Amino acid sequence: MKRGVPELSVEALEAELVREGYFDNNFVGLREDAGDAFMFEVIELYISDSEEVMAAFEKVKANDEVDFDDVQYLAHRLKGSSLNVGMTEICHKCTEIRQLCLNKDAKGSKAAMESVLVHFRKAKARLLDWIHLHNMAQAKKLKS
Question: What is 10-136's CATH number, 3.30.530.20, 3.40.190.10, 1.20.120.160, 1.10.390.10?
Answer without folding.
Answer: 1.20.120.160
